[in-house]
Structure formats: C-alpha cells, structure tokens
C-alpha cells in the first residue's frame, strides 16, 4: 500500500512538472506588433510630441465625427479643429475657413515643418479645401470627412498629391 501511494505521488508530480514546463514555455513566447504598421507609426508620432497639452488635446478629440461647420464634440470640420487646436494649445487666432487660414500663415517648406504648423490641401482642384496640423515624422492630425479626427501619414499619395501650402503662425 505504501508503494502504491508513493508511485501515485511520483506520477502526480511528474505530470505536474511536465505541464508546468510545457505551459511556462508558452508564456515566454513574445508577441509583437509589427513596428512598421500604420497604427504603430501614428502611435510613435503621438508619443514623440513635445507638447503634452497637444497630446491631451488630440487624444480628447480623436474619433469625434466630421460635421461641416461643427465646432464641438458632436461634430467638427477640419478648419474648426485647426482653429480650436491653435487657440487652445498655442494661443493663436485663426480665421474660420481653411482657405482664409492658408492666407494667414507664413509659408514654410514641407521639409521644415515643426509641431503645430499647418498643412493645406486642395482635393477639389486648386483651391484650399482642407487643413491639418503637423505633428512630427510626417504625421499630422485633422478632421477627416470620413473618419473624423484622426492622425494620418502625410506620405500617403492621396495627401502628397493634394498639398498646396504648408505654413506656420510662429
């Protein structure tokens, strides 16, 4: 009887040890997000912002839907978003329309953009009809007509083809 209990104990601990080793090896497997994914790069751009107030402002507005003429969390358009961001973060006044905002900035080269500078687009021809705010590493934040307030990659061909002016209020 004593041998039987001892044998069962040895078998139990052997099985326990086997499963402990097997399960711990699964736990050590590392899962990583592909570092070159769009979401990863956008997250890096946000993490590298110099202004923590700008970071909080963007995270607070991210996902708010687009609404032409909107200026609140129920919906906002691109020029309204740029206007509020410039006012709340940098204390700068801006006209309400993106076309007029483009006239109010001092032109800078795209390669010289700094955090908070404005980027103007003409998707419907040669007239400015969209604005975004530059972050860093060729990422910018804007109120997209289809996705609301988002951080996007300025290198995407759709944006590169439509850029008509980049400028600063500083």
From TrEMBL:
Protein family per UniProt: Belongs to the peptidase C40 family.
PANTHER family, A to Z: ENDOPEPTIDASE NLPC-RELATED, MUREIN DD-ENDOPEPTIDASE MEPS/MUREIN LD-CARBOXYPEPTIDASE
Protein origin, superkingdom: Bacteria
Species classification: Bacteria, Pseudomonadati, Bacteroidota, Sphingobacteriia, Sphingobacteriales
GO molecular function, one term: cysteine-type peptidase activity
Pfam families the record matches: NLPC_P60
GO BP: any one term: proteolysis
SUPFAM superfamilies assigned: Cysteine proteinases (SSF54001)
Keywords recorded for this protein, A-Z: Hydrolase, Protease, Signal, Thiol protease
Alphabetical list of InterPro entries matching this protein: Murein_DD/LD_carboxypeptidase (IPR052062), NLP_P60_dom (IPR000064), Papain-like_cys_pep_sf (IPR038765)
PROSITE patterns hit by this protein: NLPC_P60, PROKAR_LIPOPROTEIN
Ranges where the NlpC/P60 domain occurs: 48-170
Organism in which the protein naturally occurs: Pedobacter cryotolerans
Name the UniProt record assigns to this protein: Hydrolase
